[in-house]
Amino acid sequence: MINTSLSLQHLVRESSLTANAPLLIMLHGYGSDENDLFSFASELPDELFIISVRAPHPMQPFGNAWYAINFDEEKGKWSNNEEAIASRDLIATFINEALATYPVNKNNVTLLGFSQGTILSYAVALTYPEKVKNIVALSGYINKDIIPENLESKDYTNLDFYCSHGSADQVIPVNWARLTPPLLDSLNIKHKYSEFPVGHGVAPQNFYEFKDWLIKRI
């Protein structure tokens, strides 16, 4: 059932725990909706309180976006960074609302993103590291235009990232994803990076690897 009472519409799978449940927030990709990643929910640990969020910008004829991706002859493919920053901050607000509304542990919040949802998961974590603990970053990259310039001044000691990408990704080049581990290393942020021989998607072995990674951290 869609919950519309908070700032972003979302689906919920309640935890087997009645209080202090680890919270997992799912952020879908461009042109998709909250049902996409929610298909993972039945395969994830029962103690997780899972929220799958719908991005705020409806698309035609269907789907939603966190920010516009434009295609024109002069600029090629480019992202609307102003909309991306607004969505980054909206997600941060939504985390606060979810913590106030649901019986979850404010010290055990995980973001799970795919593609555009991953780009924003990185941005939220690097901008508001106090709000999250674990990040599962599938098929995305770090957009430096939507994160703070003074990264070295922030405390990232609580963060842990699982990052994966398809080596044959035709939407977001794998070379963009390969820039992530050196940046996380430079900030002394814990992380695991994996590649799988697929395109822009999540292979079964990718799912089982991040599931095992997550189980050890909730």
Could you write a compact summary of the structure shown?
This protein is of the alpha/beta class.
What tags apply to this protein structure?
single chain; 218 residues; alpha/beta; 8-stranded mixed sheet; two-stranded antiparallel sheet; 28% helix
Average pLDDT works out at 95
The best one-word shape is globular
How big a fraction of the residues is strand? 25-35%
Radius of gyration: 16 Å
Share in helix: 25-40%
Biggest β-sheet strands, sense, barrel:
8 strands, mixed
How many helical stretches? Answer: 6
Helix/strand structural class: alpha/beta
* Terminal-residue CA separation: 25 Å
What are the segments in which pLDDT stays under 50 over at least 5 consecutive residues?
none
Per DSSP E runs of 2 or more residues, the count of β-strands stands at: 12
Order of neighbouring strands in the sheet with most strands: 1-2-4-3-9-10-11-12
Spell out the helices and strands N to C.
Answer: EEEHEEEEEHEHEEHHEH
What features would you describe in this structure?
Helix content is 28%, strand content 28%. It contains six helices and twelve strands. It has helices spanning 35-38, 81-101, 116-127, 174-177, 180-186, 204-215; strands at 2-3, 10-13, 21-27, 49-53, 57-58, 64-65, 69-72, 76-79, 104-114, 134-138, 160-166, 190-196. The strands form three sheets. An eight-stranded mixed β-sheet has the order 1-2-4-3-9-10-11-12, with helices on both faces. Strands 5-6 form a two-stranded antiparallel sheet. A two-stranded antiparallel sheet has the order 7-8. Helix 2 (81-101) crosses helix 3 (116-127). The longest helix is centred in the middle third of the chain and has 21 residues, at 81-101. The model has no long low-confidence stretch (mean pLDDT 95).
